[in-house]
Design goal:
Elements lengths: L4 H10 L4 H23 L6 H9 L5 H7 L3 H11 L3 H8 L15 H9 L2 E2 L2 E2 L2 H12 L8 H22 L7 H4 L7
Antiparallel strand pairs: 1-2
Length: 187
């Protein structure tokens, strides 16, 4: 089942999503809504409902995993499945790192949520580079056992591919997103 907007808000309450993560998730959802709606208008077969719900709940497990050090993507997937929202569980699971290669001709909800999340720093729309720089500074020191910067660069190269293919289908530029989402309401 795909959760409704109302059910997403209920989930945010049930799992005690803090206000700052809720605000972040709402901006990610507004970008995902804007992009998936634009892609639908351009003839792409993509579910706006799955994309928006997946974006709203992408960080549903973030706060609990900060303390437990669990993978918040996997934990979020488990929460969605437990709640019966299996149709968005993989979107939540792959919002940080996609498990498939990006094909320029195919579009899916996972990629839109993954990309939308990479455009939001706290609750501000930023460029991919700004978000990557923040993640490197904020999380890099915690990952000394791996080459975090190399892994991050690889992940963001995928994000750039998604950006390119999405905006090749839309009649705007990536830097236009911030202004374009101002009138999008998720109520």
């Amino acid at each position: 089942m795909i959760p409704t907007i109302h059910q997403c808000y209920e989930m945010m309450d049930k799992y005690a999503m803090p206000e700052h993560i809720r605000l972040h998730s709402m901006v990610v959802a507004r970008i995902a809504c804007f992009l998936s709606t634009g892609l639908r208008k351009a003839g792409v077969d993509i579910s706006i409902e799955k994309t928006v719900s997946g974006a709203m709940l992408h960080d549903i497990a973030k706060i609990s995993c900060v303390h437990s050090h669990e993978d918040h993507c996997l934990k979020g997937k488990e929460i969605c499945e437990t709640e019966g929202f299996c149709e968005i569980s993989e979107i939540v699971n792959e919002h940080v790192m996609l498990k498939h290669s990006v094909n320029e001709k195919d579009f899916n909800e996972k990629e839109i949520v993954n990309y939308s999340d990479k455009r939001v720093l706290h609750d501000n729309v930023v460029s991919i580079q700004e978000r990557m720089d923040d993640i490197l500074i904020r999380y890099g020191p915690h990952f000394t056992h791996i080459n975090f910067e190399q892994l991050l660069n690889k992940n963001y190269a995928i994000t750039r591919l998604i950006e390119k293919k999405v905006f090749n289908r839309l009649d705007l530029l990536p830097q236009d997103v911030s202004e374009s989402i101002t009138n999008i309401s998720l109520i």
